[in-house]
Amino acid sequence: MSMQMLSNTVTTSLTRWLLPSVLTTGNTQQRTLMLGVSFAILSNILFGVLYAYSSFLSPLSGTQVFIWRMLSMWAVLVGYLSISGRLGMHIDKLRALRSVKQWAWLLLPTPIFLSQLWLFMWAPVNGQGVQTAMGYFLFPLMMVVFGCLLFGEKLSRLQWLAVAFAAVGVFSEIIRTQSVSWATLWVCGTYPIYYIMRRLQGIGAITGMLVDLSLFAPFALGYLYFFAPSNLAMVAGSGFLLMMLAGLGILSILAMKTNIDASQMLPVNVYGMMSYIEPALLFILAVTVLGNPFESAMIYSYGLIWLGIACLIAHGIKQLRARKSVPLAVKGQVA
Description:
Blueprint: H1 3-18, H2 28-53, H3 62-84, H4 87-95, H5 100-107, H6 110-122, H7 129-151, H8 157-177, H9 182-201, H10 205-227, H11 229-236, H12 239-265, H13 268-274, H14 277-287, H15 298-334
Helix pairs in contact: 2-12, 2-14, 3-6, 3-10, 3-12, 6-9, 6-10, 7-8, 7-9, 7-14, 7-15, 8-15, 10-11, 13-15
């Protein structure tokens, strides 16, 4: 039996054992939908856990946690792809890139990806948890705007209303504070560029992540060896930290893998609506568990942004209902 067949067998067995019977009964379409919803919920919960994870890794700083996370993610991802027999498939995709232009285009989004993961680990322990969570709230709205500007996508009234509410909310927050958090702007302003570039390249999420992590791994090792040898010695001599960092890598890859699986199983509108679970969890964790400041005056500007999100969710529900009604109409015509 090949390693890939063994991996598929183990995955199927675990799915049947771990998931409730409601997720393993019914027709194929229903099972896929329920499994996709389960994966979406699981991935968002895991991302919430990861957001608070760095606070349990003291005395490591946010940047040091980021360095170790990248290394542990790379090790877990390469190990998973090797065991599942899929590593060669991703390497073949990269070998198909022939020209310097193709490679330059591939590597261009990598700094954005790395900076976002750094901010994700740094912000919660440096008082920027609420602002970063708000960036993730604004991210889908910015994707709508980018789609309109770059791909000529038409916006519905609800989408226009969502963008308007968000714009007024951000503007009111700028007036209140006489500034706007760079963390919020970085998340909602650069993450859409990363996803759009990967989409234009036709590079899958796992392949892109493998490239990003492999590129950064030598720099991470160099940083620990030359600039933070005491940190390297401290982690190497602590069984607790080694265990926690291994868990960090496993949780990170599992969160991303289940998120990618959910995006492939669910209709776009359902997946888009469920993506709001993560920033909601991040926001709650930042205020409660991590103790990041939230002033009562912020509720007005943030409330407007949440109204925009509600409009996007309403738009998604409306489209989903319209999509469901199409097959019925077609069936009636054929009959």
